[in-house]
Design goal:
This protein is 40% helix and 12% strand. It is globular, with a radius of gyration of 27 Å.
């Protein structure tokens, strides 16, 4: 049985105080503010919001500060806070066709309607440490936008629309507007999971885990090993609700999202003609790498629709969905730091018995005539 350690409560209180001191760092340095984290560490904040399943930049930035920059811990904090919030209604599905686009690129067509909008990206930077940032204390330079209307809604048709005119892309299954949608925040995961539930799981999944699985696909451990980036879109969309007591919709604000479509060649089946098949990813904020990995995994998990045989880990629903949640994975891993004294002692007892049996068996094998020796 577990034995309470004398003075344990005081030791924990001291650990909390030491943690607060460590988190603050040198008192001679200015304390970093939540607003600074929100504005200047925006990509980390966006990841915390996405995997924490709560769009609140200020709270996500506060979680990052509390966790000393440990994003997985910050995601844990935000996810835990989310469970305390009441749900007073449901929004309508966001319409990304009306997105005010700040960035839109495609790797499939050089010249496409609406053009390529590079936007804010590290894609073209040199991976060299910029030491000038150590002394930078002024405002960043203003950047002129060449085409102010480039991101206007309706000016950038989707890649799927372009391909569909040539009959080169498989039609996406439609979802009835009033059909029930799974909710992983209130219901446990059940397998096999429908695509809406899989996407919910993937968007909250750990970016590093999904990135590794997507990389395994690219290296041939899966059917869809060479995807094409159909397009990535970054911009603002309107969030709309329709209160039960009203018969019309109300816009309640805007959020920033990243949307990604990956394309894979599909050679066709008895029910489906050959064509490109889509994988879809959508995240809060600016999270392109996560959206791309999510889209690749969405495609990999659609093997039931295509009649493919799931022969790799990246195609196994249980392996991908159950192990991608970093909150659950982190909690289960860190529970190993709790006392396991009784379990460990039972393991020692078992090992002693196995060692004794092994020693006796080895002795008998080495002795060519054990019966004669026992007679002596």
């Amino acid at each position: 049985m577990y034995v309470a350690v004398k003075g344990g409560e005081q030791a924990i209180d001291n650990a909390h105080r030491l943690l607060a001191e460590t988190r603050r760092g040198d008192p001679g340095e200015p304390d970093i503010g939540v607003a600074q984290i929100e504005q200047q560490l925006g990509l980390g904040v966006d990841r915390v919001m996405t995997e924490g399943a709560l769009y609140d930049r200020e709270l996500a930035a506060l979680a990052v500060k509390q966790a000393q920059g440990d994003l997985v811990e910050a995601i844990f904090l935000l996810r835990a806070f989310r469970t305390t919030l009441p749900r007073f209604g449901n929004t309508r599905p966001i319409d990304t066709d009306t997105m005010i686009i700040r960035r839109r690129i495609s790797a499939t067509f050089k010249d496409l309607p609406g053009g390529q909008v590079l936007g804010p990206t590290y894609d073209y930077t040199h991976r060299l440490i910029d030491f000038s940032l150590q002394a930078a204390d002024g405002k960043p330079p203003r950047v002129a936008i060449a085409d102010a209307d480039a991101g206007a809604p309706g000016s950038m048709p989707r890649i799927a629309e372009i391909l569909s005119t040539d009959g080169m892309i498989a039609a996406e299954p439609t979802h009835a507007q009033e059909a029930p949608v799974g909710d992983l925040t209130r219901e446990p995961l059940h397998l096999p999971a429908s695509r809406d539930v899989r996407l919910q799981n993937l968007v909250r999944g750990d970016e590093g885990f999904l990135l590794a699985l997507a990389y395994s696909l690219q290296r041939g451990f899966g059917a869809a090993h060479h995807p094409f980036l159909g397009e990535i879109r970054l911009g603002e969309v309107t969030v709309v609700i329709e209160p039960a007591e009203l018969d019309f919709e109300i816009a309640i604000g805007e959020i920033t999202v990243t949307e990604c479509v990956m394309l894979n060649r599909f050679n066709g089946s008895a029910e489906t003609p050959p064509g490109f098949l889509q994988g879809y990813g959508l995240t809060f904020g600016h999270c392109e790498r996560k959206a791309m990995a999510m889209a690749m995994m969405d495609r990999a998990l659609r093997w039931r629709e295509t009649g493919e045989i799931p022969s790799h880990p990246s195609q196994q629903d249980e392996f991908v969905l159950y192990h991608s949640d970093n909150v659950e994975a982190s909690g289960f891993l860190q529970h190993l730091k709790l006392p396991h004294y009784v379990d460990f002692q039972s393991e020692r007892v078992l090992l002693r018995r196995l060692q004794a049996e092994y020693a006796a068996k080895t002795t008998n094998q080495d002795d060519p005539n054990p019966e004669a020796r026992s007679g002596d």
